[in-house]
Amino acid sequence: MFNMHKFILNGYIQWAFASVVQFYVGKRYYINAYRNLKIKVQIWMF
C-alpha cells in the first residue's frame, strides 16, 4: 500500500491508461476521420 505511488507514477503505466482512454473516447472521431480520408473528403474541424 505504501509503495503504490511508485506504481502509479510509472510512466509506462500512465501511458497505457492514457492510451486506452484516448482511443475509447476518440473512437468515433477516428472512425469518421478514416472514412473521410478513404473517400477523400476534407472537413476542417476546429
Question: Would you summarize the structure shown here?
Answer:
The protein is an all-alpha fold and 46 residues long. It contains three helices and no strands.
Short descriptors:
46 residues; mainly alpha; rod-shaped; 0% strand; 3 helices
Domain count, please report it.
Answer: 1
- Give the radius of gyration: 17 Å
Q: How are helices and strands ordered from N to C? A: HHH
Major β-sheet profile:
none
Helical/strand content category: mainly alpha
- The helix fraction, in percent, is 55-70%
Number of DSSP-assigned strands: 0
What is the strand content? under 5%
Unreliable runs, pLDDT <50, ≥5 residues? none
The rounded distance between the terminal residues' Cα atoms is 44 Å
**Dominant shape:** rod-shaped
Mean pLDDT across all amino acids: 80
SS field, number of helical segments: 3
Q: How are the elements arranged and paired?
A:
Elements: H1 4-8, H2 11-25, H3 27-38
Give a written overview of the molecule.
The chain is mainly α. The chain is 70% helix and 0% strand. The chain has helices spanning 4-8, 11-25, 27-38. The longest helix has 15 residues, at 11-25. The protein starts with a helix and ends in an 8-residue tail after the last helix.
